[in-house]
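Supplementary Methods S3. Complex input for the zinc ion-bound model.
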Amino acid sequence: MLNIQLINALSDNYIACIINAAQKKCVIVDPGEADPVFNFLNENHLSLSGILITHYHWDHTNGIEKLLQRLEVPVYGPAKEPVPGMTHLLNDGDVINLEKLGMRFNLMHIPGHTLGHIAYYNDDVVFTGDTLFTAGCGKIFGGTVDQMYNSLMRIVSLNEKTLVYCGHEYTTSNLKFALTVEPENHDIQQRIDQVSKLRQKNLPTVPAQLSLEKLTNPFLRCEVPSVKKAAENYAGKALSSPQEILGILRAWKNNL
Ligand code: ZN
Ligand code: FE
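Predicted complex, serialized as structure tokens:
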């Protein structure tokens, strides 16, 4: 198992830091800011070996240039998106083998939030950026509802023990929406209790296991009858496909 720590950035972003403790080296995911990374590296006596980017949005990439002014490291990112300083352009099915660090990640193209969005994953973890959030999903800016649906289904097909690391601390508001959709879902009620305890102590609610996401994340539950019914009530019409249901759920959450 990798040692992964979360660095707080901007108002609610997380920069994941994947650490090889023996070598005192690490790679980071989606540095929206540079200073919190420099502080973390100093406090933990770590050196940076690389930067992984899930998508081009400002709050995931804005720290890159400042980091590169002081550190010479490779920047991995989505081939189809503009990322400052990118040295390795990645496509679906690619593998990053950071042999010296004992880290290896597979690449999945997951369009929807943005058109080129990618996820990094191995047997234990997946870095989903702004596509799959803990208890929610990202807004559909660059892709279509169908693309988002396919991307979420691909992520959820990973081993259900996989830990989901996403780009933001959004779990509280996501679960509030989840309970609006499924007021009778006890797993959601239980998760709200767990999450509020963590947030009271200012602790992250990320990561979460895929198995828990399947039970509590409405965007992964479009085929569950109660979710379908709630979406149909909101839309005021019958919905025939899970893609349509996802589209309605997304619009519903946007309008809250
Ligand atoms: Zn984004
Ligand atoms: Fe973001």
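The domain at 3-254 is CATH 3.60.15.10 (Metallo-beta-lactamase; Chain A). The radius of gyration is 18 Å.
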